[in-house]
Write a structure and sequence with these properties.
Layout (H helix, E strand, L loop, with lengths): L15 H24 L30 H34 L3 H15 L3 H11 L4 H29 L2 H8 L4 H9 L4 H24 L11 H8 L8 H24 L2 H8 L1
Helix pairs in contact: 1-2, 1-10, 2-3, 2-5, 2-8, 2-10, 3-5, 4-5, 5-8, 6-7, 8-9, 8-10, 8-11, 9-10
């Protein structure tokens, strides 16, 4: 049996310029961050100025606390952050979608998922990150990525389950159940196709949340360690010299903010209003 879209999930057609206008800045920023190492003028660990040197011909944004080129380190520091945030967003969205679709069809699984999610949501994010990062052998970026997945999945499951609950009691699900369809078919072939908009909005929100979580961990030095080039770590390292060379702190801070804002605007443009309201509940 083929699923039919429910009325409140239908996507209204909008002019392409209104969709592309918010998407293009996010795509350009991601491309610059990914290809940044190829554009950098200096190695990330080579001093080219005096400590906290002013902007000049050799360093367009000046030097950091060791005299390394801020712009070169800025160009090197975005690809790892975007890659980690993308992994977190994909895994969290996938797990939440599968668990949410199956949970609304099985009362026992639904209660288990709901209680587990409620318990996990009560854990403070900073404390959860610290516990998981410090418990992981060697810590580093992998530990922070796993911590972000573990902390982001419970909340995302509640969003998907909330959007899927009305579908589980709809007429086409009852008809498919009466015809003898299995739970896996109902979840993946009947409910999931009607959640495309919600899943897209959830993916955008999870990406932005992952950027903030990974950046916060980097600022607390729970993830990447010196001398690695990382935007959040650059803010932490160069904080004492902000009055000598503000760009060493302002530039990575702006990069993190622009990345989160641009991706969030792009996700809002691609997802219908109904999905955005469901994801923000």
């Amino acid at each position: 049996m083929t699923a039919t879209a429910v009325p409140d999930q239908r996507v209204a057609r909008r002019p392409w310029p209104r969709i592309l206008l918010p998407v293009i800045p996010a795509v350009l920023l991601v491309l610059v961050a990914v290809t940044g190492p190829l554009l950098a003028a200096h190695p990330v660990d080579k001093p080219v100025t005096a400590p906290y040197g002013e902007a000049g011909a050799d360093a367009a944004l000046g030097g950091d606390q060791l005299g390394r080129d801020v712009l070169s380190r800025l160009l090197h520091g975005g690809s790892a952050l975007i890659g980690s945030a993308l992994i977190v967003a994909v895994v969290v969205t996938l797990l939440a979608t599968l668990l949410g679709c199956f949970a609304v069809l099985s009362p026992r699984l639904g209660r288990l998922v709901e209680r587990t999610a409620d318990t996990a949501i009560l854990l403070p994010p900073v404390l959860g990150i610290m516990l998981l990062a410090l418990a992981w052998p060697g810590g580093g970026r992998i530990a922070i990525t796993l911590a972000a997945i573990a902390l982001g999945t419970p909340y995302a499951v509640r969003i998907v389950a909330s959007a899927a609950a009305p579908l589980a009691t709809s007429g086409f699900i009852e008809a498919a159940t009466a015809s003898g369809e299995r739970v896996g078919h109902l979840a993946l072939r009947e409910i999931l196709p009607n959640l495309r908009a919600t899943v897209l909005a959830l993916f955008g929100l999870r990406f932005v949340d992952a950027v903030y979580v990974i950046s916060m961990a980097g600022f607390l030095q729970l993830g990447p360690q010196p001398p690695e080039a990382d935007w959040a770590l650059m803010i932490r390292e160069n904080g004492p010299g902000i009055l000598l060379n503000p760009w060493a702190v302002v530039a990575p801070g702006l990069a993190i903010g622009l990345l989160a804002i641009s991706v969030n605007l792009a996700a809002n443009a691609l997802a219908p209003a109904t999905a955005r309201r469901a994801a923000l509940r």
